[in-house]
């Protein structure tokens, strides 16, 4: 009985270590380029760059929008925008519920106009 319990404990430790390793790899493969809060502070837009084959645009730019206070959710949320932008993507808030994404795109993979209560507008990074 002790052997079975000890074996199960060892398997549990190995599974936990593997899970921790996957989490470290997931977080380390993303580079957070900017985080901009909405004017009312209720939402945050993150510009992330994939540092691996992961994401909708491997080695490309991704924009994630999430409610403020959801720690690490930007690494698990669906991107509202994914592309290969010359010079990287930029974000700004026009209003509490309107996000503007700027990108001189070489290739757009995903471009959503609405994300929950958030309207998303797009502009070329070349425009001022």
Oligomer state equals single chain
Strand order of the largest sheet: 1-2-3-4-7
Tell me, rounded to a whole number, the average pLDDT: 82
List SSEs in N-to-C order: HEEEEEEEEE
Rg, Å, rounded: 19 Å
Strand % is 35-45%
Terminal CA distance: 71 Å
- What is the 3D shape? globular
Helix content: 10-25%
Query: What is the SS-derived class?
Result: alpha+beta
Strand segment tally: 9
Description:
With 128 residues, the protein is an alpha+beta fold. The protein has one domain. Helices cover 21% and strands 42% of the residues. It is built from one helix and nine strands; from the N terminus they run H-E-E-E-E-E-E-E-E-E. The strands form two sheets. The protein has a five-stranded antiparallel β-sheet with strand order 1-2-3-4-7, covered by helices on one side. It starts with a helix and ends in a 5-residue tail after the last strand. About 11% of the residues have low confidence.
Sum this structure up briefly.
The chain contains one helix and nine strands, in the order αβββββββββ.
Task: Name the features.
128 residues; five-stranded antiparallel beta sheet; four-stranded mixed beta sheet; 21% helix; alpha+beta
Layout of helices and strands:
Layout: H1 2-28, E1 30-37, E2 43-50, E3 61-67, E4 81-85, E5 90-95, E6 98-102, E7 105-111, E8 114-115, E9 118-123
């Amino acid at each position: 009985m002790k052997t079975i319990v000890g074996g199960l404990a060892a398997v549990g430790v190995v599974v936990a270590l593997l899970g921790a390793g996957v989490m470290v790899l997931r977080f380390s493969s993303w580079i957070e380029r900017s985080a901009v809060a909405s004017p009312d502070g209720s939402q945050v837009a993150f510009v992330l760059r994939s540092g691996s084959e992961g994401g909708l645009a491997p080695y490309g730019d991704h924009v994630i929008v999430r409610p403020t206070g959801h720690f690490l959710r930007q690494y698990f949320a669906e991107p509202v925008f994914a592309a290969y932008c010359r010079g990287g993507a930029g974000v700004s808030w026009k209003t509490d519920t309107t996000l503007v994404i700027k990108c001189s795109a070489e290739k757009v993979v995903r471009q959503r106009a609405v994300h929950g209560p958030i309207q998303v507008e797009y502009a070329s990074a070349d425009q001022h």
